[in-house]
Queue: 4 jobs
Job 1
Amino acid sequence: MRDLVSRIEAVTPPGRDRAVDALRAAAVLGVVLGHWLVTALVTDSGGLRGDSPLRHMPELVPFSWVFQTLAVFFLVGGMVAAKGHASARARGVPYGRWLGARLARLFGPVAAVLVVWTAATGAMLAAGAGTETVRTLCALVWSPLWFLLVFAALTAATPLVARVGPVWPFAVVLCVDLARFGLEAGPSWLGSINVAAGWLVPYCLGAAWARGARPGRPACWGLLLGGGAATAGLVLWAGYPAAMVGVPGAGVSNLAPPTLAAVCFGLAQCGAALLLLGPLRRAMRRPAVWTVVALANLSAMTVFLWHQTAMIAVTAVGLLADGPLPGLHTPPGGVGWVFARLLWLPVFAAALTVCLAAFGACERGRPERGEDERGAGKGKSGAVRHG
């Protein structure tokens, strides 16, 4: 272990901002734990159906505020993409090559998921699995891919985004929500505009950070407190859902598409993330801590793409037991389910480790020529680079 720590420390570029990697790792961890805690696969006469403890226990809604970390992901993504594009342009790397390298790293690991789950879907249908069960499982696996499509579109638009401040997309979200939820409700398709505009707000903040326009501490506190207060006001007095994730059966979701409440909440998260940069940089000076973060970033996309598969695999194997297993197949209707689900988390993590061993190589390919990152090193321990 000491040798691994030493090698990763040796191949890390001296000027690398390790706090950025720590924020990305925290964002991925939040998504994974959030999905594992609020997603239930309940057995009934028709097979498996999806459910959520948030639907039965509204008192758990505050946990969705902790684990919905997508805004931090877009903040970091905007910063890395904008800085990488500026660096590539300074070196004379064409836009097409820069974008192709980034999208190849983004979508390369997706191919394995598509192949495995296409085969699994066919096998389940051939074995007589109910269509509702197959639809539920596929939705869990495919649903994270919407994030990649939005992220890819914003990445492609980075040269334009770098010139746009977060105020403009925020204004678009505000206008769309006024049209959707105002006195005269607008058509539902208007919400699709927010899919890009909503996540463009933190992405623009990240791009501004890359240009050296990162907000100072007073502005960061303003984002944190102002965004939090605005979110609370929208929930308490404007009728927005309190949960920052989708809840089965709810009339409105804050994420599909992003609402003004989700965007304000994301601004609060961005403020908190920027305030944490100093403490994170100090923590990342410790080689052992940095090693954990570096290894997490090395497999971040694989973790993101396969964590739902890991949970599904454990659930499927559990069906071999004599009766439904608490916290795995039972309805999430009480505190007992929550404690039982917490006990399953290490099992989900073990299954995810198997997925990482099987498919991690799809993500750790050799960086493309003309890559845009701030630095890269490659040793026996693997590449240490920004994703």
Job 2
Amino acid sequence: MMVELKISYGEKFLSVHVPEKNLLDYACLPDVPGVANEAEAITRAIKNPIEMDSLAKLAAPGQKIAIIVDDITRPSPTHKFLPPIVKELESAGIKDEDITVVFATGSHRPHTNEEKQFLLGAEYASRFKTIDHDANDKGGMVFLGHTSRGTPVEVNKHVAGADLKILTGLIKPHSYAGYSGGGKSLLPGVCSMDTIIADHDYDSTLHPNALVGHMEGNPIRVDIEEAALFVDNCFIVNGILNSKKEIVAVVAGDMIKAHREGAKLLDTWAKVEVKGPADIVISGCSHPTSISYYQAANAISHCVRIPHPIVRPGGTVIVAAPCPDGLGSDGPFYDLVKEANSPGEVLEKLRRPGFFVHDQWAAQSYCGDLMVVNLIMVTDAIDQKTVEDMLATYAPSVKVALDMALEKLGPQSKVVVISDSPYIIPVLTK
């Protein structure tokens, strides 16, 4: 007898059929309702910030304002955040020409005009000056100091030179920083490539505390927040979304304290109990994390890079993601993996003293996961050879992938299905 379950696949859903005898558990986000009035919730948070003055008190006529916003790889509701934020700034006497919107692209690609309009809304995309952060533009950075780990803090000059920085974003689970949001808008969002590489170094990326949904003793989170504190007058506006990408809550104010409150709130529904560990995990992946292989690889981490993994060592993770942007990286992420015969070979190369390249942290995290599990990738936009170059197995459908995994691991293998892996923090139960 088969059990039919739904998993996310980009902007749609797939039906997955698992034999009842094999199904151990199915995990999905609870149905948490969005707020009745999103604009009202955003305004209320801005006017009642955590451990900080309101924007109306912080802003003053003549000040230069930088509003830092997420890029196209995040489902942040930036177009909903901007109207209440701009209204508060207007009430404080801030003029349009003194506002700059900076896309926190980190090491990602720049945006098209259509993407900017999608993210900001057509009115704001044309109304304000917008800048795509370029991590490779050394001349566009300001050096502010070093963190205790020795990370050089080089920040986009348009951000560093602003009198007030408003960091907007989304609090969701993150593969090695614990959660997105907060200071991540600054590092890696608007820092130089040298800063990003130093922060995402070999020892930190695979540190035992650099886990999904975990911040205590996490060297990457600590480094991010130390670096962010070099940038003064930062006010965050972070949203928390449900499975339908509706706003459930908004936190604003102090970059660390408000972020922590938001993460605690997210935990109340994002942490989902899962029976296990399983032999096979089927992981759905929704838009925009499903936009590329680079992003969809987060789905593996949510099975492995957690305090108690939900898949056995040597087990299989099946990731279903359409990946319309293909690999999502033209450079070292793909090349580092392609040039190796095994994940261990990649890690050996990366741990060599003095070896640093852009994207190495992505390859390291990915290969660290592949040291634990086997990956079968179900995707529309990436061909079989490219998937195999990434040391994974290609399957044209979840059914074929599951049949392959059961054949390899045995017909009695236990299966866990995760509806939308990058947005769920599995908590193992036995």
Job 3
Amino acid sequence: MSLSEEIDRLAELHRSGALSDEEFERAKSRLLGTGSQASGQPWASAVNALRRSRSERWIAGVCGGLAQATGLEVWAWRLIFAALFFCGGAGLVVYLLLWIFVPSE
């Protein structure tokens, strides 16, 4: 099936009410190759880009990597983990998990 036939088929489904306006636009952009695959999940690309920092590290570089990924200062991430540490040790658990599962730069 050619590209024009597929777009005509999508348009027919849209006219019949089987596809909403949003679904039609998404399907059309996917066919034309103009849409982003992760457009519905912007957090997915941010999570995949997360790396532990080699330059901004005290222990494992987790806070430095989070600072690079989010734009929040390193000291703020360190403060967040310290505050979570005093809230039942959650900061330590999260930090250790990130140290294990987040790759280094």
Job 4
Amino acid sequence: MGRGGTTRTCLLAALVTGLVVTGCGASGSGHAAGGRTDAASGERTGSAPPSPRTASDEELCAELVGYWSRKALEGDTYGDYQSMGLSDGQYDILRAAVAAARPVEERQGTRAAHELMDRRIREGCVDRYRDGGPTGGPWQ
């Protein structure tokens, strides 16, 4: 198996292991969410851990488009927008951000280009999801 296959296999094994380890707490075992069980008394102590934070559509858009924009600026992309997990509208945001960042990168460096892309992507994603998201299909 090639190097890429080995890396994918290791990542998959780590993911599966992480899922198994984090899914072990059973009700009453003292390891489930909601505090701990005191070993001596058997009583529940502590408070429940905070609920996981959910990201807004704008945040998810900015994260995903930001990731692929950096790859595109480096020239390290593959496939089309769907293989990147982007909608057509998100891909439009990516293309505009990268196009604006290329001349900035040449003149001011990668850091300035990334800062510009981050701003453009955030603005694009906020605008895109301002009214609750696009309608007309999942890839719009």
